[in-house]
Amino acid sequence: MRREPVLRVVGKLLIPYMLVFALYVQFHGDFGPGGGFQAGVIAAAAIIFYALIFGLPAARRLVPEWLVETMVAAGAFLYLAVGFAGLALGGNFLDYFVLDRDPVAGQHRGIFWVELGVLITVSGVMLKIFYMFAGRQREG
Amino acid sequence: MMAATVLAIVVQRNLFSVVVLAGVYSFLMATVLVALDAVDVAMTEASVGAGISTVLLLGALYLCGGEEAKPTPRAWLPLAVTLVIVGALVYGTHGLPAFSDPLAPIHTHVVPRYLGQALAETGVPNVVTAVLASYRGYDTLGETVVVFTAGIGVIALLRRLRRGKKEEE
To answer: d(Cα B25, Cα B57) in Å, to the nearest integer?
Structure first.
């Protein structure tokens, strides 16, 4: 598919907007529909789209395997770290009220970091599964 | 329309059209969820069900070929089991409260507090996000760990396969 000019042009036009839309869904999740899970899937879909048009090696150069594998673990770690930050500051596990002097601002901060952790893990896992499947050869 | 899609999925023998029809079904489901005012869930259904899983299934099809295996001639036992389960589920729905009954247990337990206090307590206008990340933080942590475990499982399984092949050569 690498020789298709229409796909290449449309992909180059659309992929930046897909990534920006993923960020919008992520950070606008407080006010409208959206959040870490959806944003993670949209970001992963943008990269998968890139891999389908420009080929898997190009996508691997763009988002290397080690980065994806780190993302898988880093997101869950970030979520846990927010929980333990609440503990360290004198609250309960995953207690956001203690993260800032103003409890409501603390809630905001906690939700922000937790959603970021979800985004990183979800997009990492989706990309990893796609890489694993796409990297295999057809049998027989 | 959804029923027609399901019938088409059951009748089709070509797995490629089954995968595409499953994507169509997911999008129809997402519109139903929008009609029910569950925009967050609809978004997840559209992106995960219709987007990513379609791509992954197409990748799997590329690996294993596109025709369904010949069905076993007589499948009375699975049919009977399915009918019994369907009967039990339909019987179970009679015990549920009526649709949009305001006195149903789910509307009287913690929902009033979530809907009434979420903005004041968390400062987040989207109640879904407030419940997901704050009131039910433990559950979301569990979900994230489930996704993480799925990724680790896929890595472990496919890595081992690749190494096994090298040893055979």
So the answer is: 15
